[in-house]
Amino acid sequence: MEPARITPERAEAIRAVVEHALGSLGVEYGASHAEVKVASDGSIKIIEIGSRMGGDCIGSDLVRLFTKS
């Protein structure tokens, strides 16, 4: 869903998990793509993460469409 219906606090928690995972993988620069699941208990699980743009036109089209002012 875009935009995600989450609180700013939950967004920050997700950001922290993703940044920690990317750092653990040694990814410091460039594009990244992460898919996460937030469980009913609030825990955040990484489903997929990579040092690349998302597929299926996510990076090329969808990001641009959803970030227009």
Provide structural commentary.
The structure is a single chain. The protein is of the alpha+beta class and 69 residues long. Helices cover 38% and strands 19% of the residues.
Structure class: alpha+beta
Instruction: State the helix count.
Output: 2
SS strand fraction: 15-25%
Distance between the termini: 18 Å
The description of the largest β-sheet is:
2 strands, antiparallel
Low-confidence stretches: none
The topology string of helices and strands comes to HEEH
- Helix share bin: 25-40%
Query: Gyration radius, to the nearest Å?
Result: 13 Å
Number of beta strands: 2
Round the mean pLDDT to the nearest integer and report it: 83
Query: Biggest sheet, strands in spatial order?
Result: 1-2
The coarse overall form would be globular
Give short descriptive properties of this protein.
69 residues; 2 helices; two-stranded antiparallel ribbon; alpha+beta
In short:
The chain is an alpha+beta fold. It is built from 2 helices and 2 strands; from the N terminus they run αββα. β1 and β2 form a beta hairpin.
Provide the fold topology.
Elements lengths: L7 H17 L8 E6 L5 E7 L7 H9 L3
Antiparallel strand pairs: 1-2
